[in-house]
Amino acid sequence: MLADGQTDRQTDGHADRSTRRSENARERLLTYTRSHEFVVDELGAAVFSGYNVLGDGTPQALLPLLTGHTETELPEARRGFDGAQPVDDHPWIWRQLEDAGYATQWAEDSAEVGT
Predict the structure, then answer these.
(1) Half-sphere exposure of 49 (CA within 13 A, CB side)
(2) Which end of the chain is more exposed for a tag (fewer CB within 10 A), N or C?
(3) Which long-range contacts (CB under 8 A, 24 or more apart) does 65-72 make?
(4) How far apart are CA 94 and CA 104, in angstroms?
(5) What's the Rg (C-alpha) of the chain?
(6) Tell me: the pLDDT tens digits for 23-69?
(7) pTM score, two decimals?
(8) What gap in Å lies between CA 94 and CA 88, rounded to an integer?
């Protein structure tokens, strides 16, 4: 028997998990939409529609976009590999943008991983 005001999708005062997930997904979409509109409409950001990965991992996906070079064209940077060097000297696009007077920012989505 259900408590007064409780639906069959709720038990012991806990909302159904799928309902919460849907509500969270809807809120994320709304937040993303508002953020996207602001960055594009107000700040004039570029959106890479139809962007394609040029390999099967993160470096292969991002290095060409951010440096203009494939992973194999740049110095070895993987930790533990012979001759590995920090990526500090890679020809990152933000260096060119900064030289042209633009403000740039890099944000890490998982800082605890340290990528």
Answers:
(1) 2
(2) N
(3) 65/93, 66/92, 66/93, 66/94, 67/91, 67/92, 67/93, 68/93
(4) 6
(5) 22
(6) 777 777 777 888 889 988 999 988 777 766 666 788 888 898 899 99
(7) 0.51
(8) 12
